[in-house]
UniProtKB/TrEMBL annotation, chains A, B:
Domain HTH lacI-type: 3-57
Pfam families xref list: LacI, Peripla_BP_3
Protein name: Catabolite control protein A
Organism encoding this protein: Weissella jogaejeotgali
Organism domain of life: Bacteria
DNA sequence: TTGAAAGCGATACCAG
DNA sequence: CTGGTATCGCTTTCAA
């Protein structure tokens, strides 16, 4: 049978109350007995039943993380950041995956609620809004990572507009005019819509017209990148000289498609990817990218939550700086003779 | 305030006992009232406090998953399998990450224990043995994934010996004699040691001697692959014609190092990687690999656990088939004129 | 079929 | 500084 608080108390000839106080470092007790109790607990192999503790104290040190089952592995980076912040604060991470199935979503959501998590970190993509609303009603902090959900939830993310601006600015400086946005450009999810909108807006801001813009794809996959130039556009007469990939993998697909068809990157097509994971460095040619600081996003998000009880309660948005990393996938058209 | 069982019971003019029975589909009750209660609970926004439920019933539907913080992303694949099996069985996954820090390990371990998990799935690599032992003492099933830990714990994994045999067999058939094992070849962890030992044993079994073998590296990183041929060996006079990479990333590093130095793959070096994730298909040249079925490992592991109460209790080892996928990174020496 | 009541293991308030 | 005890929300006999 499992060792309980009472067992330790009996063995120590103390009350459960005292032992509890000692083991949680709360309230008053003498260091002498405390030492004795701690050793005893250790020796007896006692460990707290967190379920009971949470039930009794009506709080929980657990926070939930919702990760899309199909993610572009930037999730791992974010989780690393969360892990760091979490482990040093004594909180515990309840990571749940989410697919597109409604029933499953409901189940996951139930899990989170029924475990009394204090906060839920939503990792990008299409989190059902009924889920967010219910969480909010239950006074559970919802923090959106790598995406702005709506103005009721806090978010820690890269500045999408700035990112896109940096990219287009760079591309235009390099002499590009006809530019494509490839990857997830659909209108139905918040993040893809944001990117699409920003792309169009910023192209205009750079004096480019609709004729200079090209949009392709509805997801962040390798295949989308690959197929864009092999099926939808004529690879021998691409109407654009540069492409912005909404994820590293998309850019990789783009690059491979070119290579596989005897074309060269960046000579025949310049590519800039969004994300900047290890992959972009491993690719040949190395991919120019705007790198998001995912671990930092995780770390900051956790801190935001930890500090939230004390100070204000209003939803906040924190932007984590991104960095343009110039590598070998963008051609300088101006240098061309 | 949160809606509790009692609230629902009051609203329904029933006792908590009855409502509990209905909501958990246990015991006897009339379908008529059941329907009423279920609707009421739904409308009131009731959801079970799983902590209280677990505490009361002294069991838990949660299982833990321990993932090395630095993983070769095959972990995601395994988790997908686990998730599938878990979501359809009503269990809940408690995913925890683990780094090398002893204190953190202890903390993670505490989390798992204190949440009363029914089983812990250990994802490869160096899981501290004190952790395993304590878990076992607490009668918590420990199932090792993608690695054999010891004969006290069940395991679901690929057949390491068979994998290595397939690779060497293939390489020898293609005319290779001098072969290197590159990646994690250290003696101190179970999995790397297994691979190292199998490599040597199977090289011998193929009539090759120690002079034909080369070992390099102590981890599964890209850098290890890259550095092996650029620093430790003379890239212009490699003593081996083929290399077995202990992970895809290692193979990728190897390939890039060759490419970056004007060498060709497979002409100047043949490469076979172990794992076979998407990466090997994206690489150029595409990497020949022995592919492990990670999602299946996850699925089977969960099923193993689910069926374990009913039948026997002995530790079992289940091997999930692997597949050699021939792509473009191995040269056929025999075909050479 | 339904209800009363005894826990589950820990916390925290209130006395002593 | 220490102990008694109500309580957290739910499950589970045992009676009714």
């Amino acid at each position: 049978m499992k060792v309980t608080l009472k067992d330790v108390a009996d063995a120590a000839n103390l009350s459960v109350a005292s032992v509890s106080r000692i083991l949680t470092n709360r309230g008053r007790y003498s260091e002498v007995t405390a030492k004795r109790v701690r050793e005893l607990a250790q020796k007896m192999g006692y460990y707290k039943n967190q379920n009971a503790a949470d039930l009794s104290s009506k709080k929980s040190r657990a926070v939930g993380v919702v990760v899309p089952l199909i993610h572009t592995n930037f999730a791992d980076e974010v989780i690393k950041g969360l892990y760091e912040a979490t482990i040093s604060s004594g909180y515990e991470l309840l990571i749940t995956y989410l697919d597109e199935n409604e029933d499953h979503q409901y189940q996951v959501f139930q899990t989170l609620l029924s475990r009394q998590v204090g906060a839920v970190f939503m990792l990008s993509l299409d989190i059902p809004s009924w889920m967010v609303n219910t969480l909010l009603e239950e006074k559970i902090s919802v923090i959106s990572l790598t995406a702005l959900l709506n103005d009721q939830v806090s978010a820690v993310t890269s500045d999408e507009s700035e990112m896109m601006n940096t990219i287009i600015d760079y591309l235009v400086t390099m002499g590009h005019k006809n530019i494509a946005l490839i990857g997830d450009t659909k209108l139905t999810t918040i993040i893809s819509n944001t990117r699409r909108t920003n792309f169009i807006k910023l192209m205009h801001a750079h004096g480019l017209t609709d004729d200079n813009m090209f949009l392709y794809g509805t997801d962040h996959t390798y295949e989308t990148g690959y197929n864009s130039v092999t099926t939808d556009y004529d690879i021998n007469h691409l109407p654009f000289t540069a492409a912005v990939a909404t994820a590293d993998l998309v850019g990789q697909g783009l690059a491979n498609a070119m290579l596989d068809h005897g074309k060269k990157v960046p000579d025949d097509l310049s590519i800039v990817t969004i994300d900047g994971l290890q992959q972009t460095e491993i690719a040949r040619p190395k991919l120019t990218t705007i790198q998001q600081n995912f671990p930092e996003i995780g770390r900051v998000a956790m801190q935001l939550f930890l500090n939230s009880d004390s100070s204000n309660k209003d939803p906040q948005v924190i932007y984590i700086p991104t960095e343009l990393i110039q590598r070998d996938s963008v051609l300088n058209l101006n240098a061309k003779i």
